[in-house]
Amino acid sequence: MTYSQMWNNSGNEAEILYLEEQIKEVKKEIKRAEAAGLQEILDQANRKLAELEAKLDELEE
After folding, report:
1. Domain that holds residue 54
2. Residue 21 zone, left/alpha/beta (φ > 0; ψ -120 to 50; rest)
3. Is residue 52, in this structure, part of any structural domain at all?
């Protein structure tokens, strides 16, 4: 493995960890919006969750 490949892998790992944290936060936001009956915020959070999960899937491939 070259230095460039190792750097790229560690960069991906850091990005994966970041995305996983973001997903956790968005899921918390979804629960709060559901509990408060805030449909617009719930819709936005669900869209954001879908985007984050798609990015995570790309990196994990």
Report:
1. 13-60
2. alpha
3. yes
